[in-house]
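Re: the multi-chain job from yesterday

Posting the exact lines I submitted so nobody has to dig through the queue logs.
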Amino acid sequence: MQNSMIKLGVAALLSVMLAACSSTDTKDNTTTTPTNNNTGASTQGTGNNGQLSAAELERQRALAQTVFYFAFDSSELTAEDRDALVYHAAELKANPSSRVRLEGHADERGTREYNLALGERRAQAVQRYLQVQGVSASQMETISYGEERPARTGNTEAAYSANRRVELVKR
Amino acid sequence: MNKLLQGFLLLLAALLTQMAAAQQLNIQITQGVDNPVPIAVVPFGWKGFGTLPESITDIVNKDLSNSGQFSTVPERNMLSTPHEQNEVFFRDWRFLGADYLLIGKIDRSEGSNLVQVQYELFDAVRETRMVGEVISGTEVQLRDIAHQISDVVYEQITGIRGAFSTKILYVTSQRISDSLTNYQLNLSDADGGRPQVLLQSREPIMSPTWAPDARRIAYVSFESSRPRIYIQDLSSGKREQITDFPGLNSSPAFSPDGKSMAMVLSKDGNPDIFVMDLATKQLRKITTHFAVDTEPCWLPNGRALVYTSEQGGANRPQIYQVNLDTGFTERVTFEGTYNSKPLMLPDGKNLVMVHRYDSSDEFHLALMNLERGTVRVLTNTSLDESPTLAPNASMIMYASKANGRGILNAVSIDGRVKYQLPVNAGDVREPAWSPFLD
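And the result, structure tokens for all chains:
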């Protein structure tokens, strides 16, 4: 562990050094000028002037949501989460080489190994929903962290609900 | 650049050493028995050169009083400090209310690195010598010698084998930032002394457990980014990853003969209990229900398992028992809305579990008698879980929350003795008490 961390540290340091080296330009003495192929006539599209369509905006907002929360003792997806997941599904289908990891979590109440199972059930609920939307099973992996990686510490209801979640992580 | 690299590595090394320091547990007794046995532990005489790194007297005093079953006579009240039998005046000790008296002396011959510890235990009421012996060891073994003396005293007076010379495993976590938590698997004496880090990781570590030979342990580590089961040899530190199945690989539990391991795998879609032959790595599927089955614990005869199952209803776990020869399964618990993580006691008739009676957030340890079906709540701390039993079956250690932090607690089977084992920083959880070490 320590060894690999030191290696990692050295690697990080080396990459900084390399970046520093490559930033000193090697000047090339020869220069070229482009040949001008201008025929005199040209057309230009108007584009959409940077205006995002409402649909595109909704798509981007949906894709920005990567954490899905659950009620106490529940692995049911909310209607809003299902809507957002439809966009994630479309994105995954459009990019068959992309992969996601669905990481399920539980709050700290109850026993640890049982909570590991609860977290897995939540991750599987998201996986099943994406699969129904046509995402290939090979693009998804589920994992549960149970109560071992809380998003928020503390024994308040706010912390508990922040911890009952599935995180969609792009690989 | 070289200097920068050096500085960076030094910083990294400093950070790692700091993190590698084990979190020490400190016992604080919260409740003892109503009529503890009064005993006087006279400061042991020391005839050698220099000073000793550990005080045997202090360790024995702490062992006995932390057990909740003894009250010790303060040194300042003592009228004399005998080190040998012919210096003992029993009347002096009865006058102080001491029923028992432990005396001793420590010696080291010049040029030797071995110390000789002589101790004698007396019944001050009957004016008899109960036991005495000389134990030799190096200075670093003074703590072992002290715990051995405590074991003998405990057994002579209570009739129950002492468990002071045993060890515990426990997991600590320290949140360094929102994205970085340091997880450690630790080993220490049962009183929290001599903590050592066995494994350190940025990913969670769970479910430490002992093999019956006390030489190997098993645990779940997420270091590969997935929960996988490892077996580690304690003295060499060598370890083997024994599972790499898709999904959960969790809840390892060595069989009483140490040859197989019960575990939970969700490779078939949902968490089920399997038993693996550790020599051949062959798996046998024990539970097949579509609901969650987890937290297996062996019965002492190795022929059955108790475990947590949701087959009676989702989010309402109850305890079930499965016979490994016949596959016959029966539900064990009926009282309460949540019963999980069973710990079978050596008598095979009582089990300790995490119990919630209603829909509150109150999770406590409860003792269930399987013959009578009675359930008795043992603890009154908060979010109690992960019970583990001392090898002499006197105490249960467990994890709970206090002021938002994880701490360890212990409670006697009869509920009369209670103590806490907090750490100085971070959270501590999942204690696992070792078998007897010999």
